[in-house]
Amino acid sequence: MAPEYGHAARAGKNSSMAPSSRTPTLPAKVSPQADSRMSLRAKWTLGGVIAGGALAGLMATGSSALALYFARRVITPARQRLANQEVLAVIREGQGQQVILAANEDTTVDGVYGLFFDDGKGHARIGRIVSYSPAERTVLREVEAVYSGDLNTARRGWWSGAIHPDPAAVGLPAEDVLIEVDGGQAPAWLVRAGGESSTWAVMVHGRGATRQEALRAVRPALELGLPSLLVSYRNDGLAPSADDGRYGLGSTEWRDVEAAIEYAMANGAEEIVLFGWSMGGAICLQTADLSRHRRVIRAMVLDAPVINWVNVLAHHAEINRIPSLVGRYGQLMLAHPLGRRLTGLSAPVDLKAMDWVSRAVELRTPTLIIHSVDDEYVPYGPSAILAERNPEMVTFETFNHARHTKEWNVDPGRWEGLVKAWLRQQLAPRTNPGQAAEEPHDRPIPG
Q: What would be the CATH architecture of the domain defined by 85-160?
């Protein structure tokens, strides 16, 4: 009110206070040129705001779409493998064959490998390197066996650690058995050991692979007297698919492994040794944590296991040049209940529950981890940290130049020697040191 009072007092000194006698003061007239400049400036400012908002909206939309693509790619089983290995020529050498391949980080590592071709209908076992030409970027390798298909007509395929198509190719008699799982029956191979054994090996392959991957471990298991059950699980192309058709990254698949343990126990097993490769390692860890039969799991042998999915997903975001924030957004979509509508998951994936770096002291099952330091798919760092934080339960052995899950392929003698020596100690007649710390047998199971 004070400003109005002062204005009236000043007006009283200079006039008779008659409103009609006072000429109103008009604002200064603005030139048309200035008005035009101001209008133009305002237009540009407004346009910039609109354009900036639209760009931000487009960037946000693009980031969300990229995050969703990344998240769905992680959990969606591939219908067809990428044939990224070029087959240049097959030549006859005496009574055998040799193959010329495009040289890359896989084909230039010595060892024995599988080559799948003709959309997976063809399968060959590829052996030692005969010669390597860096200038021509080619490598010549022995062909040890062709199990199916015509390698002479192959032009592309994919490299694999699975060198045998079935137990018969290893020279082992096996039974085809069916395990009751959610949604039906999952096929498995049962390779029996000579004599009676109350300890069985249950072998779990990795993401995008099949039970063929586990054939490399059957012979050392048999030498220890362990019957081997090579299982399939939901969404792997053999077992019934899950209702949502998505990988649970171990959070759902462990129930199929539990069903395999029940099958083994129904057929005479009293103790179980779990073998797991890559995501199969994550599945084994969940089984040892959540299964109502976890007390019968005597030990685990994990090859290049996923110890921490957050680390693996961040690694894949980086190698695919996806910004870290977008990658984390993709992780949030997987883990958050609201993300189900976008990802197609029937339930969110609890990535924290599968972080065994953070949960290291909770692992109470003796575990041997074998991991190559140059693993391009699952970084070995979390495996090393888990062993460092829980040395009582975890034994950690590194390989070099093996890349992902091919430690056996690079050096089968060392791989089998490590597994047999470690398991002999664990299976010796003594109390499992992890049992003393077990929780009650009827602990509720999440989910």
A: Beta Barrel (2.40)
